[in-house]
Specification:
This protein is globular. Strands 1, 2, 3, 4, 5, 6, 7, 8 and 9 form a nine-stranded antiparallel beta sheet that branches. The chain is of the alpha+beta class. Helices cover 23% and strands 29% of the residues.
């Protein structure tokens, strides 16, 4: 009788294990030529219905992220399906927005319709002080917009990777950059 229950529970376990559809979301990374391979999963927040988001990373400090709906890539605002984050020494250097075919795509909901945003920390010591305040509060801190202190400058590029003309340099706040650095927002 004991062996019957062991066999029964073993069969149920194996059936449950193999009944779950396994999805290879890694296949989506192959259509993004800008994203270096090989890669590995950094975060997988996809439920059993195939809804959620997933992030891949690689040895070049890139992170590719995208959302899924029913196991398929789900474009967001402006048809942005994929985003690639480029890091250097743990600091975000640029973000590229891509459509479902892996092509750069601009978005009029962003600063100036850019497809690529590049970050330049012009005052690293000042940013590190502000970053410490934000980190200590785990991001839950109201800070005044410090973009006028010209700490973090941004360069914007269109979907042809051409610079978007700006009358004056554009700056973002330390908190906005911190949020982008940890990938808090979605398009």
């Amino acid at each position: 009788m004991k062996s019957f229950f062991s066999l029964f529970f073993g069969l149920v376990f194996c059936t449950a294990l193999f009944a779950q559809p396994t999805r290879n979301y890694q296949a989506y990374t192959t259509q993004i030529t800008q994203f270096s391979k090989p890669s590995r999963i950094l975060h997988n927040n996809v439920d059993s219905q195939g809804n959620g988001y997933i992030e891949f990373t690689n040895k070049n400090n890139q992170i590719l992220r995208f959302r899924l709906n029913n196991h398929k890539v789900q474009p967001g605002s402006c048809r942005i399906a994929f985003e690639i984050y480029y890091y250097e020494n743990s600091y975000l250097k640029k973000v590229e927005s891509l459509d479902s075919n892996g092509k750069l795509i601009g978005c009029n909901l962003k600063l100036q319709g850019e497809a690529v945003i590049e970050y330049i920390i012009e005052k690293p010591e000042l940013y590190l002080k502000k970053k410490k305040l934000i980190d200590d509060a785990e991001g839950n801190i109201d800070m005044k917009d410090d973009s006028n202190e010209k700490i973090i400058r941004v360069r914007l590029f269109d979907s042809n990777y051409q610079p978007i003309a700006q009358l004056h340099p554009s700056y973002v706040s330390s908190k906005t950059y911190w949020q982008q650095n940890i990938r808090m927002s979605w398009p």
